[in-house]
Design a protein that fits this description.
Blueprint: E1 2-7, H1 11-24, E2 28-34, E3 45-46, E4 56-57, E5 63-65, H2 67-72, H3 74-82, E6 87-88, E7 93-94, E8 103-106, H4 112-122, E9 125-128, E10 132-138, E11 141-146, E12 152-154, E13 156-159, H5 163-167, E14 170-171, H6 173-176, H7 179-186, E15 190-199, E16 212-214, E17 221-226, H8 227-230, E18 241-246, H9 248-253, H10 259-273, E19 282-293
Length: 299
C-alpha cells in the first residue's frame, strides 16, 4: 500500500486528504502532519479559556464564492451546506464591498469545522507537533525529517504550508525546481496581520447591531466581528466573542514585534472605535505572518 504524507492540516491539506481518499479508497495510507497542536491553520477556531464564552475565529472569517467558483465546486459546497457545516451569512456586515455577485457563507461551529469535516472524511492518520525540516529523495520514495523524532519514508509528499517555509526545507526539494519555477515561488508575497479575540461573560450584550464591520479610518484596525453573532450562535448562558483584525500596513510595520507588545496598541484603538465595549474576561492575540498571498504560485 502506498503511503502519502500531507504536510499541513489546514484547509488545503484537509481537502487534499479527503479527495485522495475518495479517489483511491483503501489503496493508499494517508498521513497528515502539522507542526501546530491542532488542525485548522488560518481557518482554526480558538476555544475560550472556559465554557462561559463562545469560541472565536482568529483567522478566516467567512467564505466568499463567485457564481463561477460555486458552480465549478458545486459538489463540495452542496456537501458542506447539506451537512450544516456552512450556512449563508445573513448578518449585517458594515462596509463590505460585495463583488461579482458573490455569496458569503459562515460556519455555525467556527471556520475550523470545515477543516475537521474534510479530515474526518479522509480517514487520515493525523499527527500534530510534527515539524518537517527536510525532504530527501531515495529512488522512488521520500525520507521526511522533522524537528523532533525519527524520520519516516513515504511514496509521495504533498506540501501545503506557505511558500517561504517550503523553500526553507533542507534536502532535495529545491534541486527539483526549474529556474522558472523557483522565480515564481520567490515572487510569492504574503500580507501579514495581527488578530485579537476578546471573550466576554454571559451577561454581556453588545450595543451595536452589526455582525461585522470593516473599518476604513483607523491606522491599526481594519475589521471587527461579533463572532458569535456572525455565526448566529448567540445563546443564553454563554458570553459573546469579539474578533479584531489589523490592517495589512500595520501588520507589516509591526511584523517583528512580539504579539504581547502589539496587543495593547490594538486594544487602545479598539476602545476608540467602541468606547462602550464591556470588559472581557480573557484576551488572545495571534500574529499571522503569512496571512494572504498576493502572487499566484506556479502550477
Amino acid at each position: 500500500m502506498s503511503r502519502v504524507l500531507i504536510v499541513g492540516a489546514g484547509l488545503t491539506g484537509s481537502l487534499c486528504a479527503c479527495l485522495l481518499r475518495r479517489e483511491f479508497q483503501n489503496k493508499v495510507q494517508i498521513v497528515v502532519w502539522d507542526k501546530a497542536r491542532g488542525s485548522g491553520g488560518r481557518m482554526s477556531t480558538s476555544r475560550p479559556p472556559d465554557s462561559w464564552s463562545h469560541s472565536a475565529d482568529l483567522g478566516a472569517q467567512y467564505i466568499s464564492a463567485t457564481p463561477a467558483y460555486a458552480e465549478s465546486h458545486h459538489s463540495l459546497y452542496s456537501e458542506l451546506l447539506s451537512s450544516g457545516v456552512l450556512q449563508p451569512l445573513d448578518g449585517l456586515v458594515e462596509g463590505l464591498q460585495q463583488k461579482d455577485y458573490s455569496t458569503n457563507y459562515m460556519t455555525p461551529l467556527g471556520m475550523g469545522s470545515v477543516v475537521k469535516h474534510f479530515l474526518s472524511e479522509s480517514g487520515a492518520d493525523l499527527l500534530f507537533e510534527h515539524h518537517v525540516t527536510g525532504l530527501y529523495r531515495h529512488g522512488a520514495s521520500w525520507e521526511v525529517q522533522r524537528k523532533q523524532g525519527s524520520s519516516e519514508t513515504f511514496d509521495a509528499v504533498v506540501l501545503t504550508m506557505p511558500v517561504p517555509q517550503i523553500l526553507q526545507l533542507q534536502g532535495d526539494v529545491g534541486d527539483m525546481l526549474s529556474v522558472h519555477q523557483r522565480q515564481q515561488l520567490d515572487g510569492v508575497v504574503y500580507s501579514s496581520r495581527f488578530a485579537v479575540a476578546l471573550f466576554f461573560p454571559p451577561d454581556v450584550v453588545f450595543s451595536f447591531s452589526w455582525a461585522a464591520r470593516y473599518v476604513s479610518d483607523n491606522f491599526c484596525i481594519r475589521y471587527i466581528a461579533a463572532d458569535s453573532r456572525k455565526r448566529n450562535a448567540d445563546a443564553p448562558g454563554r458570553g459573546p466573542s469579539l474578533v479584531v483584525h489589523t490592517s495589512v500596513p500595520f501588520g507589516l510595520q509591526h511584523l517583528e514585534w512580539d504579539k504581547d507588545d502589539v496587543q495593547p496598541i490594538i486594544l487602545q484603538e479598539l476602545h476608540k472605535l467602541l468606547p462602550d465595549l464591556p470588559q472581557p474576561i480573557s484576551i488572545k492575540c495571534q500574529k499571522w505572518r503569512y496571512s494572504q498571498h498576493h502572487v499566484t504560485t506556479c502550477t
